[in-house]
């Protein structure tokens, strides 16, 4: 595990949509604007072909969170949606460390973040139109946020890119849970837009 990556409290995610490639590429920066990681989605040839006929929202996916030097930090995957598959989070060794469960609510999406034992360790909720989300622990204490300001949102519309921040409170130090929560926060943007 790259401890520098998970020691940060602020993560700035910059998405690049690559038109001529069949994957999305994201760079992750810390508060000093240093690149500390990457997120990549790779598709099999079969998935590339299926995207022409089947909605992307139904297809399985795998995203990998890697350090800037290429070391795997975590992976996030989902099976076929019609099989009621969960979004699963694995650590660098391939061990399941958590999952994401989407709760249905009108106008305000709510995501429960579960540990490997399927116990709730956090919840992400908020306003998808304004793109402001609160990350709270099981006792409803805020431990972080996901947001982007309107200027960055407009840049995303015109440059086929998306930028947002994932912030943790300075006193939140549970590294194992932080890996799961951060991975969940990063994937929520991708899941909501698929």
Q: Would you kindly provide a brief summary of this structure?
A:
The chain is of the alpha+beta class. The protein has helices at residues 3-7, 45-50, 150-159, 175-193; strands at 10-17, 24-29, 35-41, 61-67, 72-78, 87-91, 96-103, 110-115, 120-127, 132-136, 142-147, 161-168. β6 and β7 (96-103) form a beta hairpin.
Written account of the structure:
The protein has helices at residues 3-7, 45-50, 150-159, 175-193, and strands at residues 10-17, 24-29, 35-41, 61-67, 72-78, 87-91, 96-103, 110-115, 120-127, 132-136, 142-147, 161-168. The chain is α+β, with helices and mostly antiparallel strands and 194 residues long. It has one domain. The protein has a twelve-stranded antiparallel beta barrel with strand order 1-2-3-4-5-6-7-8-9-10-11-12. The two termini are 29 Å apart. 26% of the residues are buried.
What is the topology?
Elements (H helix, E strand, L loop, with lengths): L2 H5 L2 E8 L6 E6 L5 E7 L3 H6 L10 E7 L4 E7 L8 E5 L4 E8 L6 E6 L4 E8 L4 E5 L5 E6 L2 H10 L1 E8 L6 H19 L1
Antiparallel strand pairs: 1-2, 1-12, 2-3, 3-4, 4-5, 5-6, 6-7, 7-8, 8-9, 9-10, 10-11, 11-12
Relative strand content: 35-45%
**Topology pattern, helix = H, strand = E:** HEEEHEEEEEEEEHEH
Q: What gap, in angstroms, lies between the N and C termini?
A: 29 Å
Helix content range of the residues, please? 10-25%
Instruction: Give the overall silhouette.
Output: globular
DSSP, total strands: 12
SS element count, helices: 4
Strand order of the largest sheet: 1-2-3-4-5-6-7-8-9-10-11-12
Sheet having the most strands: 12 strands, antiparallel, barrel
Class inferred from helices and paired strands: alpha+beta
Radius of gyration: 16 Å
What would the average pLDDT be, to the nearest integer?
A: 81
Number of domains as seen in the coordinates: 1
Low-confidence stretches: none
């Amino acid at each position: 595990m790259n401890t520098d990556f998970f020691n940060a409290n602020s993560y700035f995610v910059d998405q690049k949509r690559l038109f001529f490639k069949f994957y999305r590429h994201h760079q992750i920066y810390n508060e000093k604007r240093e690149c500390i990681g990457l997120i990549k989605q790779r598709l099999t040839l079969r998935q590339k072909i299926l995207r022409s006929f089947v909605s992307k929202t139904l297809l399985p996916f795998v995203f990998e969170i890697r350090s800037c030097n290429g070391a795997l930090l975590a992976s996030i995957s989902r099976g076929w949606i019609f099989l009621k598959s969960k979004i699963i989070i694995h650590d660098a060794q391939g061990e399941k460390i958590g999952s994401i469960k989407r709760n249905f609510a009108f106008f305000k999406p709510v995501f429960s973040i579960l540990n490997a034992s399927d116990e709730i360790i956090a919840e992400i909720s908020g306003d998808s139109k304004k793109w402001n989300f609160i990350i709270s622990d099981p006792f409803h204490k805020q431990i972080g946020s996901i947001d982007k300001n309107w200027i960055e949102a407009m840049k995303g519309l015109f440059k086929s890119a998306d930028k947002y921040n994932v912030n943790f409170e300075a006193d939140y130090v549970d590294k194992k849970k932080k890996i799961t929560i951060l991975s969940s926060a990063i994937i929520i943007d991708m899941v909501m837009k698929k």
